[in-house]
Amino acid sequence: TTLPVTWSSSNTAVATVSSSGTVTGVAAGTATITAKCGTLTATATVTVQKTPSIEMDPDFFYYGMNSVNGVKLHFSGWNRSGKVIHYYTLNFTYIDPVGNPAQDEIKGNTTVNLKCVGPVKDDGQLFVWQVVGYVPFCGGIRLNYIDLEYADGTKERVTYNLTTTRTERDAFRDSPF
After folding, report:
1. What does the alpha-carbon distance between residue 131 and residue 63 come to, in Å, rounded to a whole number?
2. What pTM was computed for the model?
3. pLDDT tens digits for 125-176?
C-alpha cells in the first residue's frame, strides 16, 4: 500500500512492534498485534515462550554403581540463561528396578539435593560426575529439578522430571571413543 500503516501491541510487556511491523518478544505471554491502514484493521495473536535457562536435553545423564553400592551420577547440561550461575542444586530421586523410590542405605533418604559450585558462565557446562549415595538395588535416577542461583542474586527453578535407567556400562558401550 502507499497509505501509512500504524502498528500497535495490546501488551508491550510481552511483545513490541516497530513502525515497520517487526514484532519482538519481550517476555512470556500473549499479545495481539494490530495493523491499521485507512479504514482497514487486521490483528494477529502472538505467543512468546520463555527459553529454558538450561538445555532441557542433557548431553549425558546416566548412573553407575561401584563395588559397595555407591551410586555415581553422571550429568552434563548447558547454561542458556544469559547469566553467570554461582550455584546449581540438582534434586533427584533414586529409583529401584521396578520404578519405585529406592532408599539410600546410609542416609535413609530417597530424594537428594546435590549442591554444586560454579561459576558457570553463559553457554558454559553444568557438570556432575560423583558418588551421590549408596543404594543396593538402584535401577535408575529421576532428575526432578535444578535450582539455579545466579551471580546477580536471582534464583530460578528448572523442572525436568526426567528419568534415566541408562547405566555407566551402557554409556561407555555406546560411546564412539
Report:
1. 9
2. 0.71
3. 999 999 999 999 999 999 999 999 999 999 999 998 999 998 877 777 666 6
**Calpha distance 37→85 (Å, rounded):** 47
* 72, three cell numbers: 555415581
Handedness of CA 19, 25, 26, 30 (dihedral sign): positive
* Distance separating alpha carbons of residues 141 and 165, to the nearest angstrom: 7
| C-beta atoms surrounding 91 within 10 Å | 17
For the residues of the chain, what is the DSSP string, one character each?
Answer: --S--EEEES-TTTEEE-TT--EEE-SSEEEEEEEEETTEEEEEEEEE-PPPSB-SS-SEEEEEE-TTSEEEEEEEEEB-SSS-EEEEEEEEEEE-TTSSB---TTT--SEEEEEEEEEE-TTPEEEEEEEEEE-TT--EEEEEEEEEEETTS-EEEEEEEEEE--BHHHHHHH---
CA separation for the pair 49, 5 (Å, rounded): 27
